[in-house]
C-alpha cells in the first residue's frame, strides 16, 4: 500500500506539472455587443470586429439578380426558415465578398434578429467542427463566411468542408449557414482535377469526388465582367453618396482612363479609382 501511495503521489505531481506547463484552453466566448467575428485558432477564439469593412447594399451596382437571390436566402435564414449554403463564384473584383458583407447587414436590419457573421480563413477549414461546437451553444444565428475559397494539389482539407456542409453524421446546425466566394466554380484548380483523372484507377469516380464539393452548396451565384456603363454607374454612386464636389462629367474621363490602366473594369477597380479621387480632393469617403 505504501508503494502504491507513493506511485499515486508521483503521478499527481506529474499531472500538476503538466497542467501548469500546458494549462487548459480558456472557453471560447461570443461577445454580445458584436455582430461580426473573426475565427482564430491556436488558441481558439472568436475575435469581435467592431467596425466591418463593408459598403451599403444599395451602392453595389450591376449585380441586381445576385443581390436579390442572396438577400432572400439570408432573410429566410435569419427568420429561422430553411435556407441554402451559397457559393459566389466568378471573375475577380466583381463584388462577391462585398455582397456577402452588405447582405449580412441588410438582413440583420430587416429581420430584426441578432444575426452574426463569422469569417474563417481558408487554411482554418479543418477547424470547422470545433467552431461549430462553439457556435451551437449560443442562441444566435451565425453566417459563416470564407473569402477566396479554393483548393490546390495535395490539399485534403476540402473533405472536412464536405462533411460539415452536408454529409456528416451531425450535419450542419440549423443555426449556422455557410457562404463562400471563389474564382472557381468547382473550387478546384483544373490541374488538380486533371491529376486525379490521370492517376486514378477509376477516373470518373476520382474526379466526381473532387467536384462534388461545390454540389454541397445549394445555391450557386455567378458573377461576370461588367460593361462600361455599369462601371461608371458604380463610380457615380460612390461620388453621389460621399458628396464629391467635382461634376461627374469631369470625373468620367478619369475613371475610364483608370480602368484602362488597370486592364479592365470591375467593382474593385471602381472602388480603387474612387479612393484615389477622394485622396486627391482631400475628402474622406463617407456613406450613410
Structure at a glance:
This protein is 48% helix and 13% strand.
List the helices and strands and how they pair.
Elements (H helix, E strand, L loop, with lengths): L1 H20 L14 E5 L4 E4 L15 H15 L7 E5 L5 H16 L3 E5 L8 H8 L5 E6 L11 H10 L8 E7 L7 H10 L3 H13 L3 E5 L4 H15 L5 H15 L4 H15 L7
Helix pairs in contact: 2-3, 6-7, 8-9, 8-10, 9-10
What do these coordinates show?
This protein is α/β, with parallel strands linked by helices and 288 residues long. It has two domains: 36-223, Rossmann fold, CATH 3.40.50.300; 228-281. It is 48% helix and 13% strand. It contains ten helices and seven strands. It has a seven-stranded mixed sheet with strand order 2-1-4-5-6-3-7. Helix 2 crosses helix 3 (96-111), helix 6 (190-199) runs antiparallel to helix 7 (203-215) and helix 8 packs across helix 9 (248-262). The longest helix has 20 residues, at 2-21. The mean pLDDT is 85.
Amino acid at each position: 500500500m505504501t508503494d502504491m501511495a507513493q506511485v499515486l503521489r508521483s503521478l499527481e505531481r506529474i499531472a500538476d506539472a503538466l497542467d501548469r506547463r500546458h494549462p487548459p484552453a480558456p472557453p471560447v466566448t461570443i461577445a454580445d455587443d458584436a455582430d461580426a467575428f473573426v475565427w482564430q485558432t491556436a488558441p481558439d477564439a472568436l475575435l469581435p470586429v467592431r467596425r466591418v469593412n463593408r459598403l451599403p447594399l444599395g451602392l453595389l451596382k450591376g449585380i441586381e439578380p445576385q443581390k436579390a437571390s442572396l438577400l432572400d436566402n439570408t432573410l429566410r435564414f435569419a427568420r429561422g426558415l430553411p435556407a441554402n449554403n451559397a457559393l459566389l463564384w466568378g471573375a475577380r473584383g466583381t463584388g462577391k465578398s462585398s455582397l456577402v458583407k452588405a447582405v449580412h447587414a441588410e438582413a440583420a436590419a430587416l429581420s430584426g434578429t441578432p444575426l452574426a457573421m463569422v469569417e474563417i480563413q481558408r487554411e482554418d477549414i479543418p477547424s470547422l467542427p470545433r467552431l461549430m461546437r462553439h457556435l451551437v451553444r449560443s442562441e444566435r444565428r451565425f453566417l459563416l463566411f470564407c473569402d477566396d475559397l479554393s483548393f490546390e494539389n495535395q490539399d485534403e482539407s476540402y473533405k472536412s468542408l464536405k462533411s460539415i456542409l452536408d454529409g456528416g453524421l451531425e450535419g450542419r446546425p440549423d443555426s449556422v449557414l455557410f457562404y463562400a466566394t471563389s474564382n472557381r466554380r468547382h473550387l478546384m484548380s483544373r490541374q488538380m482535377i486533371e491529376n486525379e483523372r490521370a492517376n486514378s484507377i477509376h477516373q470518373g469516380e476520382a474526379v466526381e469526388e473532387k467536384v462534388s464539393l461545390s454540389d454541397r452548396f445549394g445555391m450557386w451565384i455567378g458573377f461576370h465582367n461588367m460593361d462600361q456603363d455599369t462601371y461608371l454607374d458604380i463610380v457615380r454612386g460612390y461620388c453621389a453618396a460621399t458628396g464629391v464636389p467635382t461634376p461627374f462629367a469631369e470625373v468620367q474621363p478619369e475613371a475610364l482612363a483608370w480602368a484602362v490602366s488597370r486592364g479592365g473594369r470591375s467593382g474593385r477597380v471602381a472602388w480603387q479609382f474612387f479612393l484615389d479621387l477622394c485622396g486627391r480632393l482631400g475628402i474622406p469617403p463617407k456613406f450613410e
